[in-house]
Prior knowledge:
Elements lengths: L9 E10 L6 E11 L4 E5 L6 H8 L7 E6 L2 E2 L5 H11 E4 L11 H11 L4 H14 L15 H13 L5 E5 L7 H18 L2 E5 L3 H5 L3 E6 L2 E4 L16 H5 L5
Parallel strand pairs: 3-8, 3-9, 6-7, 7-8
Antiparallel strand pairs: 1-2, 1-4, 4-5, 9-10
This protein binds adenosine-5'-diphosphate and magnesium ion.
The site of magnesium ion (MG) has 4 residues, from helix 1.
Amino acid sequence: MSNESTVIEVHALGLTKVFGSGVRSVELFRDMEIVIRRGERVAIVGASGAGKSTLLNILGTLDRPTGGKVLYGGQDVFLWNADDLAHFRNRHLGFVFQFHYLMPEFNALENVMMPGLIARMPGGEIRARAEELLEKLGLSHRLKHRIGELSGGEQQRVAVARALVLQPKLFLADEPSGNLDSRTGRRLHELLVTLNEDMGLTMVIVTHNTELASMMHRTLRLVDGRLRLEGSGDPDRTRAAEPASVEEQTGGGPG
Ligand SMILES: Nc1ncnc2c1ncn2[C@@H]1O[C@H](COP(=O)(O)OP(=O)(O)O)[C@@H](O)[C@H]1O
Ligand SMILES: [Mg+2]
């Protein structure tokens, strides 16, 4: 199943999500389609309650759609069994949640190392990577602090480092700079762009931060269950979501 070719491109099609049933049911979107190309940086914006987190969770295989499919490299991931799906997430996806879900009984460094320990990587290597990421995120003085001893913004950066430590192919983040002051936020945004440009890290980021959104190749706005290419003002361009060519936008594209 999850070999290199399965993580080149994400294609969600016919995506429908309904919570509840009967008169109290809430339909967030129906028949939605999105293509995320390898090496792309995509922002998803929209009002609170529009369904952004739900959509991101489905793309990240953490929630199942009511209808439709999510294909990674052409493979329908929701047909895989739970173990294969968990392995795929661990190895190929880096997820930053709106509420970070760090483990309070461990320190910052241990939290960042955790995906590597789960993947049974050599301890020295994973530790070196975790330290390097935490340093890039301005946290080298907080390695041994437990999560509860860190500020909200520091916790958020630990969560970002944890999502990046296994060098995922796809980085999915839900308001990653929501808790950060503008200077720390900018540092994180610059790191993400660098990882994208230097290592081809594909990213889908839900954000309210206009600076971060402006650094992405595309911004999609989720309104009334539809994705619109921000700024096009044309609701029929939902498909849109599909760019003509990433190479054109990035001037050469990732390796
Ligand atoms: N597990 C759930 N059960 C029922 N309704 C839910 C559930 N999760 C989210 N919703 C509803 O779906 C809507 C969209 O939620 P969400 O995806 O979190 O929006 P956003 O991230 O854009 O603010 C909200 O109205 C929310 O109440
Ligand atoms: Mg949300």
